[in-house]
């Protein structure tokens, strides 16, 4: 694992590459954001945006999701992965919102994580994007990039990756860094074909150097 100083230097380079990175899930409020993040598990943001365009016109409140038959909701979600499970969780989540939170998305980690289908990652995204509270959600891109760069160890679990990043990155930058790391992983350090040959981090990145050497053989 590399030092905090070197890790932050890398994060700074990534920040310069994607200064305007922001959430790509289209939403108008905390409720829509929560639904969109829940739907995005193991699915691309693009696929989610395609269905939420009509979904958010049809369902505007938690009560709207509760009133609809589960089979109709499943049908509305059928183009994305795990849609049956997601439909079930959305209904449960909406029920809890009405019973415990006056129909509103709560603004603490603990309360958010008490909702069906909402884990630590989703809670972190909602806290950061909807409530502007410092949080650093670790998704598949953030995890892969942090490990390739040596900021974290390959064996670290998601929580360890989050803790390490929160140690390395100043708190006031957590929210922005989350999006910048996602953009870096989504558009540059891609899972299958990272752009190592044009990467400004290549000199500092052991994984990239290994890949370049392997390609040259
Ligand atoms: Fe990713 Fe390659 Fe850049 Fe390393 S050198 S950060 S593996 S794109």
Give the bound compounds: iron/sulfur cluster
- What's the architecture of the largest domain in CATH terms? Orthogonal Bundle
Please give the number of β-strands: 0
Count of alpha and pi helical runs: 12
CATH fold name of the largest domain, please?
A: Endonuclease III, domain 1
Beta content: under 5%
Highest-level CATH class of the largest domain: Mainly Alpha
Explain the overall architecture:
With 217 residues, the chain is mainly alpha-helical. The chain has two domains: 4-20 and 137-216, Endonuclease Iii, domain 2; 30-129, Endonuclease III, domain 1, CATH 1.10.340.30. It has helices at 4-17, 30-39, 45-58, 62-67, 70-77, 83-100, 109-113, 120-130, 140-148, 158-168, 174-187, 206-216. The model has no long low-confidence stretch (mean pLDDT 96). Iron/sulfur cluster binds next to helix 12. Residues 39-187 form the HhH-GPD domain. Its cofactor is [4Fe-4S] cluster. This is Endonuclease III. It holds the Pfam family EndIII_4Fe-2S.
What attributes characterize this protein structure?
binds iron/sulfur cluster, mainly alpha, 217 residues, HhH_base_excis_C, 12 helices, 2 domains, Endonuclease Iii, domain 2
Structure at a glance:
By secondary structure, this protein is mainly α. The chain contains 12 helices and no strands.
Describe the SSE topology.
Elements: H1 4-17, H2 30-39, H3 45-58, H4 62-67, H5 70-77, H6 83-100, H7 109-113, H8 120-130, H9 140-148, H10 158-168, H11 174-187, H12 206-216
Helix pairs in contact: 1-11, 2-8, 5-6, 9-11
Iron/sulfur cluster is lined by residues 148-149, 188-189, 194-196, 199, 201-202, 205, 207-208.
